Amino acid sequence: MMGDLAIRDLIYFDFNKAASIWSQFEGGLRERISVTEDKAKDHIAGARLGIPNIVEAKLGAEYTDSTSVMESKLPHHDLLNRIEEQLSQLGLVVNLGEQVDSTESSPETIRAIIGNKPYLLAGGWSVIEDYRRIRSITGEFNKLLKYISQCNLEAIKQSPEYAKIQRHVEEVRQQIKQIMDKNQKSNAKAQVQSLESELKQMMTPQLSSVDQWLLDGIQLWINTFMPNRINFRIYPFESCPSFQVICNLKRECFVDQDLEHLLYGYGNRPNVPMAVFGLITSIPAETGHHFDPMTEFQSNTILSEKISFEKAFRQVFGAMDELEDWMRYSRYPNVTVHPIAVFRQFQGFKEIEGAG
Asked: What are 55's strand-pairing partners?
């Protein structure tokens, strides 16, 4: 008999968050996972992984590099599967792929099904927004445009069309030397000017630089509010693009530490479905915040000097919060999650032993 087998390409995993959840099911981890670092060559390093019911084995690894770090990557998939299973059994997880029709177009319906569930599993089309990468590109943007434009100009110079016009210009110039009639010579000179204008038009850069004040402003905004942020967006329903699951990915939690390698493989807009499992941290209401922390000052019109000072400073924080909210993208009808795992899932089949 054949049964479903789910295989995941685990891209991102917040191990500390996952271990914290699992320890609550097991009454605490019996041992902390050790990390061994060694500078020697041809050394065998061991690390004891003490996650109950997952793996308790002595790992050995030969390595010849000058530096080697044995990390707790082997149990990641198993740990993810187990905490997802345990949380689902407690009714704490909403699986959008299973609990919402794939053609759903109403964000209100989707949010109603999510309800008060704290954990969410969602898959679909996705976008990766690495703001450190954007900041880096912005700093060299005009230089890149100039280089691309120069490459285009050099390619035009080598083109048959450009060479043909240039030869024609030289031919007409030679003919002008032999022409005695003033009118004919004037017409020939006008023809040369027309051809040279055509060459000049071909050599006009097609890309124009961006005003430096704009590039500086983009870098300032990123440096102030999101210097290290990696936004990850999931669009679970094609019929409802306004509903998105948004999260911030921590660089140290990528399974492959070379983020450049990941972006090369999947791209900033992966053309294969991705999925995220995490803790819901924000479900913005359509009307804004439910509670205003400054309400305490509204009914009290006579304030002491100390309280007035506190109020003024808290109003400054409130104004800064409003500015920062522009870049959080936590708005209705989006849902924000603290991601535990990001992965690509494959569905296959396997033989079920003893069945039949």
From this structure: 51
Asked if pLDDT for residue 249 goes beyond 90, the answer is: yes
10 Å CB burial of residue 344 (0-12, 13-18, 19+) is middle
The token pair at 191 is: 């023809």
> Residue 69 corresponds to which tokens in the numbers above?
């770090």
Structure tokens at 293: 């922390």
**Among positive and negative, which fits the CA dihedral 106, 112, 115, 117?**
negative
Residues 113, 99 contacting (CB under 8 angstroms): yes
Q: Which residue in 234, 336, 342, 343 sits closest to 280, CA to CA?
A: 336
Under a CB-based contact definition with an 8 Å cutoff, are residues 19 and 29 in contact?
A: yes
Taking a C-beta distance cutoff of 8 angstroms, is the pair 280, 337 a contact? yes
Structure tokens at 155: 């390619």
The number of residues in the chain equals 356
pLDDT mean over 275-284: 95
Residue 271 reports pLDDT greater than 50 = yes
* Positive or negative: CA dihedral 193, 194, 196, 200: positive
Structure tokens at 179: 């022409």
3-state DSSP of 264-282: HHHCCCCCCCEEEEEEEEE
The partner residues of 12 in beta bridges, in order of sequence, read 254, 342
In angstroms, rounded to a whole number, what is the distance separating the alpha carbons of residues 47 and 338?
29
Nearest CA among 231, 338, 335 for reference residue 283? 335
Q: How many CA atoms lie within 13 A of 133 on its CB side?
A: 12
> What six digits make up the tokens of 198?
């055509």
What is this structure's pTM? 0.70
CA angle (301 as vertex; 295, 304 as ends), nearest 5: 100
H-run or E-run covering 340: strand 335-351
Q: Which residues pair with 6 in a beta bridge?
A: 347
Q: Is 100 exposed, middle or buried (0-12, 13-18, 19+ CB in 10 A)?
A: buried
Q: What is the per-residue pLDDT across 106-115, written as a single tens digit (0 to 9) for each?
A: 999 999 999 9
- Cis omega (within 30 of 0) for bond into 160: no
Six token digits for residue 11: 């891209």
Alpha carbon dihedral 8, 9, 14, 20, in 10-degree steps, equals 30
